[in-house]
Amino acid sequence: MKKIFMLCTALGTGLVLMLASCKKTGSLAYMGNATAGAVTASANKVVLDVSKMTVADTSILFTIKSASFGYDAAITNELQFDSVGDNWAKAVGVAMDAGASKLPYSTYKLNSLALKLGLPVNAAGQVLVRLKSTVSTVTVYSDPITLTVTPFSAASSVYVPGAYQGWSPAAADSLVSETSNGIYAGVINFTGSDFGFKITTAKNWTAAYGQGSTAGTVSLSGGNLTAPGNGGYLLTLNTDLLTLAYTPQWSVIGDAAGGWSTDTQMYLNKTNNSWYVTMKLTSDGTKTIKFRFKNDWGTNLGAGSGAGTLSSGGGNITIPATAAGGDNYTISINPTTLTYTLVKI
């Protein structure tokens, strides 16, 4: 009986020791401690050459040593890039193919990445790179390496032909991406009663974004897009996510301009960055207007300290008495110089 008891005790002790050597993180148990992998680069200093922008070159080659989790497992590897001082808060992740140990980066891709991370153009900046390895709920990170990268300016444009300008890609206004990161933005003045338009990748109809399958999306095979209405709208196109956003800019509002719940959008004068609109105002000599940004009272301009001046959050601007049916005015504002004009026409 004593021998049986001692045998059971020995077996129990062995089982406890076995369990003690088995680590558990989340729902995943693995033998021993996970060991992070490593990443190396073919160069630690890269000066990017704009002449290779469209060439299928390899400006830098990343090589990884995969992490170890103590047993055979399918590991998901991702290279993460970030600028120095960001503490990986806005890291850009690039997934690696299963089983791959190398990741080449072309001049175009590395330049776009550097600009997306905020590195200065034509100046050396630093990029941190690390390997993120994951099995189930367990993730380990390699020690980061530091690259010194000198990117070049890579601004690019897309074009917005539409009914407002006669459907001419060659003469259309543009949306600009300062870093060619796939995000293009610009103010387009939509006029008339037809608000249809498209976005072309060049000043021709070779490739054009139209309406996507849902609101706020675009497609290279879609029909015409439709602007919200008259006025200057900031268009933001994301060619990676295939999304398009419209943001109203400056507007006129007031009981002399149709009521305090109705904004009349203004147009951008791109030569001096002022905003203008011609509209009917109606007043008995006491009605007023103000100007606001994005159809929101968070940023609004009212009367300043002198004639024709504006101030942030200033008082209402009184409109002189008009004819019974109202009078037409050309109204302009300059949000930078905080001035405005009211010209009766």
TrEMBL record:
Q: Which InterPro entries match?
A: DUF8037 (IPR058350), SusE (IPR025970)
DUF8037 domain location: 158-245
Please tell me whether the keyword Flavoprotein is annotated for this protein: no
Family matches, as Pfam families: DUF8037, SusE
Instruction: Enumerate the spans annotated as SusE outer membrane protein domain.
Output: 36-132
Q: What are the transmembrane regions?
A: none
In terms of domain of life, where is this protein from?
Bacteria
Question: Where does the record locate the signal sequence feature?
Answer: 1-29
The UniProt keyword set, sorted, is: Signal
Q: What is this protein called?
A: SusE outer membrane protein domain-containing protein
